[in-house]
Amino acid sequence: MAGNHVDSQGHHITPFVVYLKVAAALFALTFLTVIAHHFSQQLGAFAAPVAFLIATIKAILVMLWFMHLKYESVVNRVIFGAGFFFLAILLAFSGLDIWTRVVVFSTL
Amino acid sequence: MSTDSHSAKGHEHHFAHHFRSAEHEYQTSKEGIWLFMATEILMFGGLFVGYSIFHNIYPEMFAEGAKYLDWKMGFLNTLVLIFSSLTMALGIFFLQKNQPKRAAVSLAVTILCGAIFMVVKYFEYTHKFHLGILPGRFLDVTKVGAHHANLGMYFGFYYCMTGLHGIHVLLGMGLISWLLFRTLRGDFNSNYYTAVEGVGIFWHIVDLIWIFLFPLLYLVG
Asked: What is the DSSP string of B156-169?
């Protein structure tokens, strides 16, 4: 297993064919996004979630194989994950703020 | 300058004196890049959060805005960026395999894809300027024939998000040109390709952000 998949420093080398497969999957999912868009009338309320689900799958493929996160150290995964964690906090609290506002009309 | 004849063994990388080893230098550099990537997620994330909130408040206005975008242009640019991500990853792969000439070709194709992306973006932008579709209060509501008076908000998000993304593409093209120059000079081999790996991660995050921008702006709206 080693030898062929490891460079002179012991870093993991992703095989050529894996890169091609990931790229093929990304192209296929991009076409799927557009196909789903053409059925957005039928999908109704699911059109947006479907589009973002496909985008998320594409993003995971890019992160794991193109950005080599699959073979990255735990520290670096935590650092990158922290970005998404704090983004989720920003979204959650901004959303809570906006959607729990009570409209007050002045009587003055 | 036949760089392909270089063997990795003859090119031990001289790491900076404050590192214990070349591996220590490589891992430290990558940690810095990942920290930078976390800030990138937060910078674009702020725009994404703003977009989702205002999209929820004015869904019809955002739907109208998306109608002014040509999804075919966004689709083409998505394919171009995915292909450029592949060639970027292959650039690193060929350096790991000590094939600098192939790596140089991969990097050159990556720069070319970035240029195609920007040309498409240029035509999209100038076409919109021509129609009076500008961000915020600069949007000409009567000339555009907008149904919603606050349509400028959608295009405020559109220009901020795609503009910031476009700046990243331009910066990435500059950085990859620097990598191409250094690859041709014979700086990189399987013992040392840290800069290529770092810029590669940056280029992939540019692709990653576009993966979300395309459905968000062009399709869902």
From this structure: HHHHHHHHHHHHHH
Token pair for B12: 């031990």
Contact in structure between A13 and B97 (CB atoms under 8 Å):
yes
Contact predicate B206/A25, CB 8 Å: no
Report the predicted TM-score, pTM, of the whole model to 2 decimal places.
0.91
CA dihedral B207, B212, B217, B221 (to 10 degrees): 170
Residue B120 CA to residue B65 CA, distance in Å, equals: 19
Neighbours of B94 (CB within 10 A): 23
Partner-chain contact B219 A84, CB within 8 Å: no
Nearest CB to B49 within list A48, A68, A94: A94
Strand partners, B192: B189
Residue whose structure tokens are 């002045």 = A106
Distance of alpha carbon B77 from the chain centroid: 11
Of B49, B56, B214, the CB nearest to A90: B49
Local confidence band at B5 (pLDDT 50, 70, 90 cut-offs): very low
Q: What is the ipTM of this complex?
A: 0.90
In the numeric block, the tokens 């692709």 are attached to: B207
